[in-house]
Design a protein that fits this description.
The chain is mainly β. The chain is 11% helix and 38% strand. It contains 2 helices and 15 strands. Strands 1, 3, 8, 9, 10, 11, 13 and 15 form an 8-stranded antiparallel beta sheet that branches. It has a 7-stranded antiparallel beta sheet with strand order 7-6-5-4-12-2-14, with no helix packed on it. β8 and β9 form a beta hairpin. The longest helix has 16 residues.
Length: 221
């Protein structure tokens, strides 16, 4: 009669230890062929968003790095970049807003971007710390009907990739909401606390389509 109680205590200990498997995308080398398409839960028809991910890379120097790309048939609708000079930016269908923040490294960084069309308010978060707010694309709407990919920047609809802009490193926990999360919610997410799951992309239930030399690993946090 004591065995079930022991097993129950072991199960409780495992839960309390916080051992949670998570899918991690590993891009081992610079290529023009490796990428992952992410299938959204609903179309990206956005007047506001919060986009978060955990990312690590050893790329440095004068090297562009694409972190997130959403493209419709004719336009780049939302691209997130590390620029040649080491600053970070995102672009909504032309024009760019740029932030001077610490560079990414081999140590995993929790990286978020927020944008609100009603005011144009835009900000970047690294490990829960918020940048200054900049105003960008007030009144703009991100249209539906495109594809989202990680690892490459498509110069046409899911094609014409440049290896010198590709991502090399590790990305996981990519989540997106059609609203601006509070600063406190983003800090909670960085520290591992539960927050409402993304309603555009939810990494816990994400559907991924891999291409090329990308490894999808299950890693316990």
């Amino acid at each position: 009669m004591r065995l079930p109680a022991i097993l129950f205590l072991i199960a409780i200990s495992t839960v309390l230890a916080g051992s949670v498997p998570i899918q991690t995308l590993v891009f081992p080398s610079e290529t023009s062929t490796s990428y992952v398409e992410m299938v959204p839960l609903k179309p990206l028809n956005l007047k506001a968003f919060t986009l978060c991910m955990r990312v690590a890379t050893e790329l440095s120097g004068e090297r562009e790095i694409i972190l997130f790309a959403y493209r419709t048939q004719y336009y780049d609708e939302l691209n997130v970049w590390r620029e040649l000079d080491g600053r970070y930016s995102f672009a909504l269908s032309g024009g760019t807003v740029i932030f001077s923040v610490p560079d990414l490294s081999a140590l995993q960084t929790h990286f978020c971007i927020t944008w609100d069309s009603s005011s144009g308010a835009s900000a970047l978060f690294m490990d829960g710390r918020k940048s200054l707010t900049k105003l960008y694309k007030k009144g703009h709407t991100i249209p539906p009907g495109g594809k989202v990919i990680i690892g490459q920047d498509p110069d046409n609809y899911l094609g014409e990739f440049d290896a010198k802009q590709s991502f090399v490193g590790e990305i996981n926990d990519v989540n997106m909401w059609d609203s601006v999360l509070s600063d406190s919610a983003i800090k909670d997410m960085f520290s591992g606390k539960r927050v409402p799951r993304g309603n555009i992309f939810d990494w816990e239930t994400i559907q991924l389509r891999t291409n090329g030399a990308v490894e999808v690993l299950n890693i316990e946090l």
